[in-house]
């Protein structure tokens, strides 16, 4: 008998001062049986960082042709494709061909090894951004996971603070790659 996804609910209150975005989102998240709390919470972090009314979760881990999070325009074209983890170069380059912008949020103690092996292979992707979440931070983020979560998220000057269940966590992402136009 196949295991079913576990359903999580997240009430996000987002104050993104960098983008002047202030809104609340009630999310229903299906956590695949093979997905950890850590990975799911990094998906939620990716949502927080790019929050908009049109941003949605894809099938992610259970589908080869959809990202973890994405933003489509009114015609169905993909504006933003977000991957969580350490995808291979074939998946990254395919996503870069299908979307205006691809962002990867890697996490785990093995992220630097993954990036060192893949960086040259994806260097030609001009619409790719890659950020790393330190392993200790992603593990702390995982501790906030609950079936019903209330998270207050503040973003200012590139720093992220997430408060939930009496805990406060500061998140500083490491930039591994950004498009040349964004780096200026």
From TrEMBL:
<dbReference type="Pfam" id="PF07152">
    <property type="entry name" value="YaeQ"/>
</dbReference>
<dbReference type="InterPro" id="IPR038590">
    <property type="entry name" value="YaeQ_sf"/>
</dbReference>
<dbReference type="InterPro" id="IPR009822">
    <property type="entry name" value="YaeQ"/>
</dbReference>
<dbReference type="InterPro" id="IPR011335">
    <property type="entry name" value="Restrct_endonuc-II-like"/>
</dbReference>
<protein>
    <submittedName>
        <fullName>Uncharacterized protein YaeQ</fullName>
    </submittedName>
</protein>
């Amino acid at each position: 008998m196949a295991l079913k996804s576990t359903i999580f609910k997240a009430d996000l209150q987002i104050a993104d001062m960098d983008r002047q975005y202030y809104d609340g989102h009630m999310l229903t998240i299906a956590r695949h049986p093979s997905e950890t709390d850590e990975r799911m919470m990094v998906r939620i972090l990716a949502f927080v960082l790019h929050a908009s009314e049109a941003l949605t979760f894809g099938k992610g881990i259970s589908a080869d042709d959809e990202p973890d999070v994405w933003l489509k325009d009114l015609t169905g074209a993909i504006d933003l494709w977000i991957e969580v983890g350490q995808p291979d170069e074939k998946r990254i380059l395919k996503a870069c061909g299908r979307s205006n912008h691809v962002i990867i949020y890697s996490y785990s103690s093995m992220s630097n090894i993954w990036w060192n092996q893949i960086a040259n292979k994806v260097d030609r992707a001009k619409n790719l951004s890659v950020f790393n979440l330190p392993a200790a931070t992603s593990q702390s983020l995982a501790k906030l996971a609950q079936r019903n979560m209330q998270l207050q998220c503040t973003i200012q000057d590139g720093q992220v603070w997430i408060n939930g269940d009496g805990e406060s966590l500061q998140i500083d992402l490491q930039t591994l790659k950004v498009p040349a136009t964004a780096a200026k």
